[in-house]
Write a structure and sequence with these properties.
Elements (H helix, E strand, L loop, with lengths): L4 E3 L9 E9 L9 E2 L11 E5 L2 E14 L3 E8 L5 H11 L5 E13 L4 E14 L8 E6 L40 H17 L6 E2 L57 H4 L1 E4 L5 E8 L18 E7 L2 E10 H6 L4 H23 L16 E5 L6 H9 L3 H4 L3 E4 L1 H7 L11 E2 L9 E2 L2 E5 L13 E4 L1 H4 E14 L8 E14 L5 E6 L3
Parallel strand pairs: 3-8, 4-8, 11-21, 15-23, 16-19
Antiparallel strand pairs: 1-7, 2-6, 2-9, 4-5, 5-6, 7-8, 10-21, 12-13, 14-22, 16-20, 17-18, 18-19, 20-23, 21-22
C-alpha cells in the first residue's frame, strides 16, 4: 500500500515571535479542489514543529496549541527568535506582510473522490508551515506578536485570490488508521529537488551571445576563463577521433587531460582605458589649441581666446574562428572536448587581441602602440639598451605622465636592464618586496609584454608612459560564441563559431614614449 505526505501550499519564507492563525478553514476547497471535513483533525495534538516553506531543515518555532473549531483548524505557537537567527528573519517578514499564509503537511488516512478533487475525512498532521502563498486562500496568519512583548501586531493575513496553477491530483485510496506505515518525509524533498533541477535544465539555451568574463554556451558548456577575448580569423581543420590533421584522440585510450603550451599575453588591456561602444564608430574629442590667459589691468577688457578641438575616430575590428569537431569525439572522448575547446579558443583570442594593442596595423586590426605615429620616439644612438637610454626615456616624459607611467618590454629586455647599475654601482632594477607585485624601474612598474621586440639593433624594445591617458580600447562585441549543430549534421560535425569586435588606438601620443635603437 502506498502512503505519502501531502503539502497543501506552495513554499515560502519564515518568521519569529508569537503567532496564531487559521491553518485550515472548513467549508471550502483549496486550489486543487480538496476539502477537509470537520473531525479530520480530532486526533491531532500539540506540540508540532513550525516550519518555513515545508522545509524540514528550517524549523523556526513550535506550535503549542492546536484546536479544531467550527471555523477550522486554529494554531498558536511561537518563533524561536532568541535561539534561531532564521526565526528572527521570518518574524521580520511577518511584520512587513511578506509572509501571510499558513499551510499544513499531512498524510491522508481516509478520503473519497469529489467533483474537483477529494473530500478528506481523516488524516495525520505532521507539521504546519509559514508560507507566502498558501494552497488554501483562507489559510492565513491572524496574529503575530514579538517574543519580547505580548502586544498584538495588526493582522497581517489577507485573503488571497485563487490561483490557476495546474496540479496533478492522484486518486488516493482510503488508508485505515491502523494500517498506516511509517512515512519518509525526505522523499518529497528529494522529488522537489529533482523537479527544480529538471526545470533549470529545460530552461537552458543551446547557443547564446555573451559579453563579459563568464561565458556559457548551452547545457553542455562549462564556464569560460575570466579573461575572454576573440581570436584568429583562420578556419581550423576538423578535429575528430583518428583524424590525421587533428591528432589521434581515440575515446577509449585518450587521457583525461590534453597537453598544451602556456598562453602568454601582453598586458595593455590591464593598463589602458576601456570604453564600451554601442555603435560602429566612437568619436573622442581632443583638445588641440589651449586657452591663452592674458594679463589684464584694472577696467581693461579681457582678451578673447578660443580653444580648438579635433575628433579622434575609434572603430572596432572583427576577429573570429570556426572550429568543426566530430560529434563522436564530443560524445565519447574521456576529455571534456567542448569545455577544453572553449578555454583554448578564449586563450587564443586573448593572445590575438593583446598582440593587436602592441603591433596592430590600425587598418584591419586595432592600432598598436609601436605602430602609432603619434607616440613619441627617442632614438638612441648608443647602440644597445644602457643607462643613458633609460634615463632619457624616463626623464624625457613630462612629470604628470611619468608619475603614472608603466614600462613595457619582453623578458630578454628585462634581462639586459637587470644588469645595469647607476654611477654608484646600485642596480636600477628593483625587485618587488610584495608577493604578486611587478618589479620597478625608477619607481614605476615593469610589465612583461611578449609581443614587444627584442633589444636588438634597429628594434623598439621599450615603451614607457601613462597608458591610462594615452591609449584607449573600445569593446563593441565582448564575446559571441555559437554552437552550430545543424550545418554539419550530415557529416556528424559540430561547429564552434566565435567572434569578437574590439578597437584600440593611441589617443594622446605625448603621454607615451618608445625607445628606438640605432641600426647596426
Amino acid at each position: 500500500m502506498t502512503d505519502f505526505i501531502e503539502i497543501k501550499a506552495q513554499l515560502a519564507v519564515d518568521d519569529t515571535g508569537h503567532v496564531s492563525g487559521l491553518a485550515w478553514p472548513f467549508g471550502s476547497p483549496d486550489h486543487v479542489g480538496d476539502e477537509i471535513l470537520p473531525g479530520a483533525f480530532k486526533a491531532v495534538a500539540a506540540p508540532l514543529p513550525m516550519l518555513f516553506q515545508h522545509d524540514q531543515t528550517q524549523v523556526v518555532g513550535v506550535w503549542e496549541k492546536i484546536t479544531e473549531t467550527a471555523e477550522g483548524l486554529t494554531v498558536k505557537g511561537r518563533l524561536l527568535v532568541d535561539e534561531i537567527a532564521r526565526a528572527r528573519e521570518v518574524r521580520a517578514m511577518l511584520v512587513e506582510k511578506a509572509v501571510t499564509g499558513l499551510s499544513i503537511g499531512f498524510k491522508t488516512k481516509a478520503a473519497a473522490p469529489s467533483v474537483r478533487g477529494r473530500t478528506i475525512t481523516a488524516l495525520d498532521l505532521f507539521e504546519v508551515s509559514l508560507v507566502a502563498v498558501p494552497c488554501h486562500p483562507a489559510a492565513r496568519i491572524t496574529t503575530a506578536k514579538s517574543a519580547a512583548d505580548d502586544t498584538a501586531h495588526p493582522s497581517i493575513g489577507e485573503k488571497m485570490e485563487n490561483e490557476t496553477t495546474p496540479a496533478i491530483t492522484p486518486v488516493v485510496p482510503t488508508v485505515p488508521a491502523n494500517d498506516a506505515p511509517a512515512v519518509d518525509l525526505k522523499a518529497f524533498e528529494t522529488i522537489r529537488n529533482r523537479l527544480d533541477a529538471l526545470e533549470a535544465k529545460a530552461a537552458r539555451s543551446h547557443g547564446v551571445t555573451i559579453t563579459g568574463p563568464a561565458i556559457h554556451t548551452g547545457d553542455e558548456r562549462k564556464a569560460f576563463t575570466d579573461y575572454l577575448r576573440t581570436g584568429d580569423a583562420t578556419e581550423l581543420k576538423a578535429l575528430a577521433a583518428n583524424s590525421g590533421t587533428g591528432g589521434i584522440l581515440a575515446p577509449e585510450t585518450v587521457s583525461a587531460t590534453i597537453i598544451e603550451k602556456i598562453a602568454e599575453f601582453s598586458p595593455v588591456r590591464g593598463i589602458a582605458q576601456t570604453i564600451a561602444m554601442n555603435g560602429p564608430l566612437l568619436q573622442l574629442p581632443r583638445l588641440v589649441t589651449e586657452v591663452t590667459v592674458g594679463e589684464v589691468a584694472e577696467l581693461e577688457a579681457k582678451p578673447e581666446s578660443e580653444p580648438t578641438f579635433e575628433q579622434i575616430d575609434l572603430k572596432p575590428f572583427e576577429m573570429g574562428v570556426m572550429v568543426p569537431v566530430s560529434r563522436t569525439l564530443i560524445e565519447d572522448a574521456q576529455v571534456d572536448i567542448s569545455g577544453y575547446l572553449a578555454n583554448h579558443i578564449a586563450r587564443r583570442f586573448g593572445q590575438k587581441e593583446a598582440s593587436w594593442f602592441v603591433t596592430g596595423n590600425g587598418t584591419s586590426q586595432a592600432e598598436g602602440v609601436l605602430t602609432s605615429t603619434e607616440v613619441q620616439v627617442f632614438e638612441h644612438t648608443g647602440g644597445l639598451v644602457d643607462l643613458d637610454a633609460i634615463n632619457q626615456l624616463f626623464y624625457g616624459l613630462p612629470t604628470a605622465y611619468a608619475v603614472n607611467g608603466v614600462w613595457l618590454m619582453n623578458r630578454r629586455t628585462m634581462s639586459v636592464i637587470r644588469a645595469i647599475s647607476d654611477g654608484n654601482g646600485v642596480p636600477i632594477w628593483q625587485p618587488s618586496l610584495a608577493s604578486g607585485q611587478p618589479p620597478t624601474l625608477y619607481g614605476r612598474p615593469v610589465l612583461e609584454a611578449v609581443d614587444m621586440p627584442d633589444p636588438a639593433p634597429g628594434g623598439t624594445p621599450i615603451v614607457f608612459g601613462d597608458f591610462a591617458t594615452g591609449y584607449a580600447i573600445a569593446d563593441r562585441i565582448g564575446f559571441e560564441v555559437i554552437r552550430d549543430e545543424l550545418t554539419g549534421a550530415l557529416n556528424s560535425m559540430v561547429k564552434f563559431v566565435a567572434r569578437r569586435r574590439v578597437g584600440g588606438r593611441v589617443i594622446l601620443g605625448e603621454s607615451l614614449v618608445k625607445l628606438e635603437l640605432a641600426a647596426a
